[in-house]
Amino acid sequence: MDENRLQGTTEAIKGGIKEGIGEAIGDVKMEWEGKLERVKGDAQDMYGQARDSVADAAYSAGRQAMTFGDSLRHSIATQPYLALAVALGIGIGLGLLRARYRESDYEPRRIYRY
Question: Which of 21-30, 58-67, 87-96 has the lowest mean pLDDT?
């Protein structure tokens, strides 16, 4: 839990109490100060929630990347010939792609801007 959430919640509670006291004794200034503190506290709490959400998403993405890496490592360890064939296929494909662009009659498309 982010510290902004704690501070925002306590600020909102204090503002609500101040607002209630101001309303009970008929002090309009105190009531509006309480409303302002409550709104500021709610905003700070929402900021803390947003930070928590971003942190959770980053953690989840990191875990997903580690899971993919672990599964790839496991697949290579259990099926080395298949991994070799896939790597060879990718290498041949990239080589053919590169050779296509090295031909002398190949001319890249030109884009003219007027």
Answer: 58-67
